[in-house]
């Protein structure tokens, strides 16, 4: 108890100090942050060699559909730097903390003297690594949700762009992006596509950017859409509207087919979550009934097996929840 | 005893060094060639392993993969055993077990876990490839209905959009120009396993459609549309089945872990109580 109070005081002391410091430097900080951001963007955009790193290409692909203001290269470098800062912060904080009270014992029912042990460097390193991996996991989850959402949002894009089909391709794309609601994940990619369509130097450059768009969504309809755009950019937009209406028809037809297939299968996955929650609650109630609440909590929180297995159960529960949510919605594709 | 062994090994190494140093130039050259690091790493390249990696969709050369396995194993062995050797302690089994685990996880042999992982990856890759084939067929159909490009030009235009079929499609386009449609499509079908569910049907549809002109081709595609729909439907159902099997397994893990947790806690409690009583 005493040690817990000590930890709370330590944390609040450091947090208060940091807060005071932030209050002092806030205005200056904001001003220089703008300048720094501008310089950073300029430098990363000028530097073309970042593309040769596998990790940057990989992050670029993930961030294309998830970042709010995506910039090729700069977003990925920024994400990496943020993970690094998180790692360093957690690592330094864990090293600064003088000691943690020990709360897992072999026999939690005996009386123990409070024991305080410092955190070893390797443990701090591993914990910091796990913490710095959290943004990547969140990014991965958001990406796998957004990829599926993008395949449905493309239907909306095709509907809206067929209204602007009399315009040249670049301005049709820009008008479409203006008309899209803010929740549509293709809004920012469409703006980028429009800017490339209005100012490309060679057809290869145009095709590379268009390929990035279609491979980010990764469905047949996206490929067809992009191929149509490239074709009509070359040949003029007389038959643009007809082609878009045809694409719209086939998207709607496939959407019906998917809804029919989904109705048969959805329950099994959605039910899994509730069954898991039910089993966890039920077995806990049984255990409390036979062991009494105090003994159960002591076994769960003050022994090593209890802590390890409980964290395993909770993480696997959360993972199963997210995987079930991602899988229960198939892509709009053939 | 230990000192005697160390001395013996030193004497052996010295003898070998003297032999090499005093040998004829040709022999020395041979030694130098044999001991060239690049040549030694080249020996790690294995065509069978390379093929397995390619089918699993891993873009690494077999040489590099083997080098990585070897490097990791030797680092683990060194870190695990060298301090124990220096301090004259009894070596533990953990590093050996770790090395065995690494070998077991990445080995391409069929009856190891690694073989299982590679075959699972290649099956996934095959499913993706099938998806791209259906996508290609749909794009072909749309092309015939709307723009009506020539087949080889259509292939050239489509190819960069496919990740797995890209090279095959470019080669197919070249072959259509050089050898004619029939031979080229035969070559394309041979790129897939002989018991493939629908690549034969795709060849039939493309051959029949290319033989017709304009409106007639569109009418033929309308006739064949139920075949195309059935192919894509089968594909969709099979993919959905694998997904739901996977999801069922993932969903079952937390419940099992919770049962396991409660049983272990009760057993632990029983042992603690028994210690108190006796």
Could you give the topology of this structure?
The complex is a heterodimer of chains A (334) and B (278).
Chain A: H1 2-46, H2 54-66, H3 74-96, E1 100-101, E2 116-117, H4 121-161, H5 169-179, H6 187-198, H7 203-217, H8 220-235, H9 240-291, H10 293-301, H11 304-327
Antiparallel strand pairs in A: 1-2
Helix pairs in contact in A: 2-3, 2-4, 3-4, 4-9, 5-6, 6-7, 7-8, 8-9, 9-10, 9-11
Chain B: H1 2-21, H2 25-34, H3 37-42, H4 47-55, H5 62-87, H6 94-106, H7 113-145, H8 151-158, H9 166-179, H10 181-190, H11 199-210, H12 214-277
What does this protein structure show overall?
The complex is a heterodimer of chains A (334) and B (278). Chain A is an all-alpha fold. Chain A contains eleven helices and two strands. A two-stranded antiparallel sheet of chain A has the order 1-2. The longest helix of chain A has 52 residues, at 240-291. In chain A, 24% of the residues are buried. The mean pLDDT of chain A is 86. Chain B has 278 residues and is mainly alpha-helical. Chain B has two domains: 2-120, no CATH class; 127-240. In chain B, 81% of the residues lie in helices and 0% in strands. In chain B, helix 6 (94-106) packs parallel to helix 7. The longest helix of chain B has 64 residues, at 214-277. The interface between A and B is large, with 60 and 45 residues.
Properties at a glance:
heterodimer; A: 334 residues; mainly alpha; two-stranded antiparallel ribbon; B: 278 residues; 12 helices
- Which of globular, elongated, flat, extended, rod-shaped describes the shape of chain A? flat
Q: What is the strand tally of chain B? A: 0
Compute the gyration radius of chain B: what is it? 30 Å
| Chain oligomer state | heterodimer
Sheet with most strands of chain B: none
Largest sheet of chain A: 2 strands, antiparallel
Measure the end-to-end span of chain A: 61 Å
The computed structural class of chain A is mainly alpha
Q: What is the mean pLDDT of chain B?
A: 86
Order of helices and strands of chain A: HHHEEHHHHHHHH
Q: Give the number of DSSP strands of chain A.
A: 2
Coarse structural class of chain B? mainly alpha
């Amino acid at each position: 108890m005493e040690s817990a109070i000590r930890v709370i005081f330590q944390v609040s002391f450091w947090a208060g100090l940091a807060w005071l410091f932030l209050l002092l430097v806030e205005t200056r900080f904001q001003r220089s942050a703008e300048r720094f951001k501008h310089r950073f963007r300029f430098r990363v955009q000028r530097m073309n060699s970042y593309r040769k790193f596998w990790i940057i290409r990989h992050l670029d692909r993930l961030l294309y559909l998830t970042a709010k203001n995506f910039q090729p290269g700069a977003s990925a470098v920024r994400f990496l730097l943020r993970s690094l800062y998180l790692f360093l912060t957690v690592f330094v904080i864990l090293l600064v903390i003088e000691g943690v009270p020990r709360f897992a014992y072999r026999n939690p029912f005996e009386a123990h003297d409070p024991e305080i042990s410092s955190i070893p460097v390797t443990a701090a390193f591993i914990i910091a690594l796990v913490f710095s991996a959290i943004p990547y996991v969140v990014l991965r989850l958001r990406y796998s949700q957004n990829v599926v959402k993008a395949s449905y949002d493309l239907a909306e894009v095709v509907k809206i762009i067929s209204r602007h089909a009399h315009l040249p391709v670049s301005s049709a794309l820009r008008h479409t992006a203006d008309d899209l609601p803010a929740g549509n994940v293709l809004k920012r990619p469409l703006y980028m596509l429009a800017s490339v369509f209005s100012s490309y130097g060679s057809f290869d450059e145009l095709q590379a950017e268009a390929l990035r768009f279609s491979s980010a969504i990764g469905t047949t309809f996206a490929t067809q859409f992009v191929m149509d755009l490239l074709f009509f950019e070359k040949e003029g937009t007389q038959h643009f509207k007809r082609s878009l209406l045809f694409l719209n028809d086939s998207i709607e037809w496939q959407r019906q087919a998917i809804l029919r297939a989904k109705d048969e299968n959805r329950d099994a996955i959605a039910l899994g979550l509730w069954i898991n929650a039910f089993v966890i609650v039920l077995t806990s109630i049984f255990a409390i009934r036979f062991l009494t609440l105090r003994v159960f909590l002591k076994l769960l929180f003050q022994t090593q097996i209890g802590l390890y297995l409980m964290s395993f159960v909770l993480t696997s529960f959360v993972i199963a929840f997210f995987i079930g949510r991602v899988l229960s919605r198939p892509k709009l594709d053939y | 005893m230990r000192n005697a062994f160390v001395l013996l090994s030193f004497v052996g190494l010295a003898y070998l060094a003297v032999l090499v140093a005093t040998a004829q130039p040709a022999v020395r050259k041979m030694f130098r060639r044999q001991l060239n690091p690049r040549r030694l790493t080249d020996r790690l390249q294995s065509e069978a392993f390379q093929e397995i990696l390619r089918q699993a969709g891993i873009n690494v050369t077999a040489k590099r993969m083997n080098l990585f396995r070897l490097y990791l194993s030797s680092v683990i062995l060194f870190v695990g055993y060298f301090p124990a050797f220096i301090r004259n302690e009894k070596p533990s089994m953990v590093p050996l077990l770790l090395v065995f685990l690494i070998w077991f996880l990445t080995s391409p042999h069929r009856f190891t876990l690694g073989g299982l992982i590679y075959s699972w990856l290649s099956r996934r890759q095959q499913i993706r490839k099938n998806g791209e084939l259906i996508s290609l067929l749909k794009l072909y159909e749309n092309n015939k209905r709307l723009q009506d490009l020539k087949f080889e030009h259509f292939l050239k235009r489509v190819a960069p959009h496919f990740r797995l079929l890209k090279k095959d499609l470019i080669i197919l386009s070249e072959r259509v120009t050089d050898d004619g449609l029939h031979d080229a499509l035969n070559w394309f079908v041979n790129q897939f396993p002989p018991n493939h569910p629908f690549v034969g049907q795709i060849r039939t549809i493309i051959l029949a459609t290319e033989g017709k002109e304009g409106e007639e081709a569109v009418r033929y595609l309308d006739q064949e549309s139920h075949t195309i729909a059935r192919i894509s439907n089968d594909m969709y159902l099979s993919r959905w089945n694998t997904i739901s099997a996977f999801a069922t397994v993932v969903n079952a893990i937390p419940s099992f872990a919770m049962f396991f947790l409660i049983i272990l806690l009760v057993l632990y409690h029983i042992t603690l109580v028994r210690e108190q009583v006796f």
